[in-house]
Amino acid sequence: MKQFPLKLVSRRMLAPTVGHYVFQRGDGEPLDYIPGQFIQVHFQYADGTATKRSYSLATIHDHALGPGEAVEIAVSYVPGGAATALFEGLGEGDAVQASGPFGRFCLMPADANRRYLLIATGTGVTPYRAMLPQLERQIRERGIEVVLLFGARTPEELLYGDEFRAFADRVPGFRFVPCFSRELPTEPHADVRHGYVQQFLAEFAPDAAGDIAYLCGNPNMVDACFEALKDYGLAVPQIRREKYVSSK
Known about the structure:
Layout: E1 4-15, E2 18-25, E3 38-44, E4 50-56, E5 70-76, H1 82-88, E6 95-102, E7 115-121, H2 126-142, E8 145-152, H3 161-170, E9 174-180, E10 193-194, E11 211-217, H4 219-231, E12 239-243
Parallel strand pairs: 7-8, 7-11, 8-9, 9-10, 11-12
Antiparallel strand pairs: 1-2, 1-6, 2-5, 3-4, 3-6
């Protein structure tokens, strides 16, 4: 897979330990991707050993208009992490080497389900941000429902929370349910829950006849929800998974 340069356009902090990075390809080519896919960033450890990290694309782009310019990812900072040092050291206009896109954690054209259950913790929510234009189209054209259950410890760690809430307010059929394990916001929305995402699956009555579920984020959450959804009768192909394992 050939590599290409990504030049940093801007960055902002999404949470105390997560940055949102906006890049453009430095070779002038567009990055044609399917929402849900990821890229790999290639770099070297201090001793020169080659390594790479995978990042889901968070870019919101209407693919009906053709491939886009921006490449957006969310990066978790790990204390002492080599990738963290790389990203923290980037200035505007600096470049990293990347390859991709990869992955099949995508909405499938042949899906005939009535509802998507999208479940995430932490940066596992980034692919769902990229899927928003597709989901809006499917809600409009197929009349489906979408529930996004998103787990975070505290309100300040709820990545893209304002965007998902605004989307839910604007698009009937999309429901955003943030689940906070440690502390709640001061004036919580009616859809806010206190606890872990897997505790609230039952409330949404997973249905083998009409649901397709996506699980992305913490491996323990992914495993717990996978087992719970199987207990509700969902077949393995109806449960699509991507685990995020943080590495130094």
